[in-house]
Structures are given as C-alpha cells and as structure tokens.
Specification:
rod-shaped, 192 residues
Amino acid sequence: MDKETADCILKLDDQIKHLWNSLKYRAEAEEYERAAREWREKAEALDKQIREYKNELATHIKSVNEESSRYVNIVSVIGYAGYFTTWGFTRDILGREATIFVASMGMASVSLFVLWEMFAIYMRLKSVGMLGQMFRNSVSVEAFEELRAQLLSDEARTTAIINPVHKVVFIVSFAAAIAGGLAMMQKLYMSL
C-alpha cells in the first residue's frame, strides 16, 4: 500500500475512533462503523487496482522492450553479416585508406552493439539474481506477490531510464555502419 493511501486510512481510523468515543447512541455508532468499514474496503480495493495497473504496465514495458530488442538483434546480425561479407569481397577494390575506414566504421559499430548487449545481459542477470535472492531468503507466498510487483516496477523504471541511452548507442552504431557502407558503395561505384 502506498504511503498516501496508508496515511488516509490511518486518519480515517483515528476519526472513526474519535467518533465512537463521542457518540452516545449505539445505533449511530454502528452506522458510523459500517460507513468507516465501507470506506476502508473502498480504499483497499482502490489500492489493489493501482497495484494491478502498475504490474500490468511494468509487464507490458518489459515485454515491448524484450520484443524490440530481439528484433533489433536479428536485423543487426543480418546487417553485420552482409556488411563484413561485402567488405571481404571488395577489399582489393577499395584501396588502403578506404579499407581502413570501412573496417574502422564496421568495428566501431559492432563494438558498440556488443558492449550494449553485454550491458543488457548484465541487467537481466541482475534481475535473475534478485529473484534468486528472494527464493534463498524463503519469501512467503503472501510477500512474494508484493516483491514480484516491486521487481517488475524496478525493471520498468530501469528500462525507462536506459532507453534514451539505448537510442544514442543505436544511432551511433547505425551511423558508423552506414558511413562505412556508403564509403564502400562510393568506391565500388567509382571502380565501375
């Protein structure tokens, strides 16, 4: 339960106790007690809906991130295979400077890509480590759902924070590959 909801429930509970002490008639006290119980139930239901919404959102963010990451990896591997295959066949035509430039751009692109993927694997292993710690500490069934929700929320927050960094890495890596590819294409065209 979030702090704001907990504070609201505590204030309501204090007000209810104060009312019970000041009321003279049992019927009125029972009516106030019923109303307070209804408010408490509504607050708990609202808190449950908020937790479910946060869990759903965190799960969705994680799913979208994993799917897009898989797609980018597949396309990148195909692109790099084509890039280096073409470079291998055209090295004799390119000349020394162009060969060095194309190789440098390709290696810079691949290096950035691999470093980013290693970082992503580290982040995934960190999440797996947290799950392992939960099981080693024999987390009760009641506490598991709350800890799972917290883990999902943390992963979603981390994803939201590192997503702009991923965009920069992707753009720089893509630009390096494009620069090398354009240099290769220009030299090949000039050699026709």
